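Side project, low priority. Logging it here so it doesn't get lost.
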Amino acid sequence: MAEYTLRPAVEAEAAAIQDLIHLVGINPTGLDWRRFIVAVTPEGQIIGCGQLKPHGRDLLELASIAVLPDRRGEGIARAVIERLLEGSPRPLYLTCVSRLEPFYERFGFCAIEYDQMPRYFQRLSKLAGLVFTLSKRSETLSVMKLK
């Protein structure tokens, strides 16, 4: 296992962040390199990333948590999340497929019901439900909150 360091992203890494997000197949919207923390090898390769994404003035989402598939299981996502959570305002939200809830519960996130969600996440939840139904996926979208 090669070592890595965590640091804020730089503008020259914007394309690499987008490539990683597309590779792992997560939401590619709202990718602003200025909000990202990246995990980088000594050779400068981005192997993981994550951001705190704002939705309006008062809503913040832990988002875009991605790790190269061949580097999973090394604690990279955990390290990125812990760095992003340091000093982040509360409440903090995230969305994930339902099977990932136990992973995020380790950080103190709890799944919330539809009526507890801010309007943005209610709309997202409805849209995701439609997409999952049309694609015949058995998963659902979970909205989680860290108090």
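Brief comment: The two ends are 35 Å apart (CA to CA).
Revisit when time allows.
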